[in-house]
Design goal:
Layout (H helix, E strand, L loop, with lengths): L7 E5 L2 E5 L8 H17 L8 E6 L2 H11 L8 E5 L4 E6 L4 H15 L7 H12 L9 H12 L7 H6 L8 H16 L2 H17 L5 H8 L3 H25 L2
Length: about 250
């Protein structure tokens, strides 16, 4: 079994990064992860936390797989993963082509769990998908837009937030579940100030008391036509994306 990569350590605000390879303290990826906390807290009106998030960065995939298979044999086979136990917040990943995306996703879980208890699974994953795309993109996940637009056109998918709320384990979630979780999150955070405040208020209630009325019920109460609005939101994103792609092709 591979050992944890603890040869090198860097502390950047809330993050404690352990790695097999010595990284410069001001590495652009680390700067990006640190700045991501400010973006998240500002967008969601959440406070920062001083609870450490341990990030274990393996130098290659085989070592990562070896460690994870031994330490967490029942966990899904993923490039990176966030694990919360009774006393620590931990992220495990390896240095690969998509390490930046992977770390933004999993570290987002860490930032959220350090200040908000009992996060609903779909919202937890939706926010991680929103912030994984990187700064300055307003959470736009092009892959999800394409997948959902195609699935809606061929009638293999329709949105149903009540079904998402019933999901209790990430292992139950399909790629379309992740995409739909992202879409509901993007709709709340990027459509109108009122919808953004709905999400912010829900997170505030969870942070203060550890419990809150379901988000599906909140949406139904404040947005009785939410499903149709969500589909229109998706159509708008798909149209904008098609226009951008055409413009990019013409510029080449």
């Amino acid at each position: 079994m591979a050992e944890l990569p603890v040869a090198n350590q860097i502390i950047r605000d809330q993050l404690v990064i352990f790695s097999d390879v010595k990284l410069p303290r001001r590495h652009r990826l680390l700067d990006d992860l640190v700045a991501g906390r400010e973006d998240l807290c500002k967008k969601l009106t959440l406070p920062t936390s001083d609870e450490p998030i341990n990030v274990y960065l393996f130098q290659d995939e085989p070592d990562y797989r070896s460690f994870m298979d031994h330490r967490y044999p029942g966990f899904p086979n993923r490039r990176a993963i966030f694990v919360q136990d009774d006393t620590t917040l931990n992220v495990y990943a390896f240095w690969g082509e998509r390490v930046a995306e992977d770390l933004r996703h999993e570290v987002t879980h860490g930032y959220l769990h350090s200040v908000v208890p009992n996060m609903p699974l779909w919202l937890d994953e939706g926010l991680a998908e929103y912030f994984e795309v990187g700064r300055g993109r307003h959470g736009l996940h092009r892959t999800h837009v394409t997948a959902l637009a195609e699935a809606f056109r061929d009638k293999s998918w329709t949105p149903e937030i009540q079904r998402l709320e019933r999901l209790q384990n990430a292992e139950e979630m399909t790629q379309l579940d992740y995409a739909e979780s992202w879409l509901w999150t993007h709709f709340l955070l990027e459509s109108t100030p009122a919808n953004l405040k709905l999400a912010q208020d829900q997170l505030a209630r969870l942070r203060m008391s550890g419990e809150a009325e379901s988000m599906a019920d909140q949406i139904a109460k404040h947005l009785p036509d939410a499903t149709n609005q969500l589909i229109e939101h998706l159509r708008g994103l798909a149209q904008d994306q098609s226009t951008t792609v055409v413009a990019e092709l013409r510029s080449k």
